[in-house]
Amino acid sequence: MKRTDDLQAVNGAPFLSRDDAESRLCNAIAALGRLAGIEVDQGEGPEDIDSVLIDAAYQCNFADPHFLGGPCAFNYVETADDVDKLAMKAAPVIRGLLGYIRKCDFLN
Fold first, then answer.
1. Once rounded to an integer, what is the mean pLDDT over residues 71-78?
2. SS in 3 state form for 27-86?
3. In Å, how far are 2, 25, 30, 64, 87 from 19, measured between CA atoms?
C-alpha cells in the first residue's frame, strides 16, 4: 500500500480547477483514512473511531463527499465565503483523522 505516496500526490501543487481542488481534497481525506486504518473501499474502520470519520473517508474515496454537500460541491463556489464554508466542513474531519492517527501512533 502506498500511503505516503497518496499524501504526497496531493501536497504542494496549485489547484488547476474547481474539480481538481475537490479531487485533491478527497484524495487527501481518503489517504488519511487509510492511515487511520479505515477500509475506504468498504466504509469500515476500527471500532474506536468516530463513524462520521469513516463515512467521510469512504465518501472521499469515491470522490462523493456528501459531508461537503455532495459531489461537485466545489463547482458551486463563487465567493471567498463559499470556500470558507467548505473548509469549515472539511476541517473537523481532517483534524479528527489526524488526531486518531496520532493517538494510535501510526506514523512511527
1. 83
2. HHHHHHHHHCCCECCCCECCCCCCHHHHHHHHHHHCCCCHHHCCCCHHHHCCCHHHHHHH
3. 23, 10, 16, 12, 15
Closest CA to 25 of 96, 99, 90, 83: 90
Distance between CA atoms of 49 and 17, rounded to whole angstroms? 33
**C-beta of residue 74 within 8 angstroms of C-beta of residue 19:** yes
Q: What is the pLDDT of residue 18?
A: 82
Mean pLDDT value across residues 67-80: 84
E strand or H helix at 93: helix 80-104
pLDDT at 108 over 60: yes
* Cβ proximity of 65 and 26 under 8 Å: yes
For the segment 8-22, the average pLDDT, to the nearest whole number, is 72
Whole-number pLDDT of residue 1? 39
Burial of 11 (0-12, 13-18, 19+ CB in 10 A): exposed
